[in-house]
Design brief:
With about 120 residues, the protein is mostly helical. It has four helices and no strands. It starts with a helix and ends with a helix.
């Protein structure tokens, strides 16, 4: 249980680092504490909206709301949210393509056996 908790905290800190680097890349010089608050609250919002597939729209609205509370302009908060979405797509699309290729191979093998 302690290891699970440790790795969850570690992943949260790494994700906060990603937010911090993205904020710096967008030209906003914020503290790492701000990035941790933003990431933690965004995780809470995404968790609360688990019924929305992919949290589409929820994540963006959450970042805009939280960004305004932390002094980040709305357009920058939206840009930050879209940077996070790009990361999800970059990691998710290759997995979906691999899954599709795997299933297509299974379908072809099944059809060859059937004929």
């Amino acid at each position: 249980m302690a290891e699970c908790y440790f790795f969850w905290i570690l992943s949260w800190i790494i994700a906060s680092g990603e937010v911090w680097i993205a904020l710096w890349a967008l030209g906003l010089r914020s503290s790492f504490t701000t990035a941790m608050i933003l990431e933690g609250a965004a995780l809470a919002i995404r968790g609360a909206a688990f019924l929305v597939p992919g949290a589409v729209g929820v994540q963006e609205g959450g970042y805009i709301l939280l960004g305004n509370l932390l002094g980040i302009p709305g357009e920058m908060a939206l840009a930050l949210s879209l940077v996070r979405r790009v990361r999800e797509l970059v990691l998710g699309i290759p997995g979906l393509v691999a899954w599709q290729l795997l299933e297509a191979g299974r379908l072809l093998r099944h059809r060859r056996r059937a004929s």
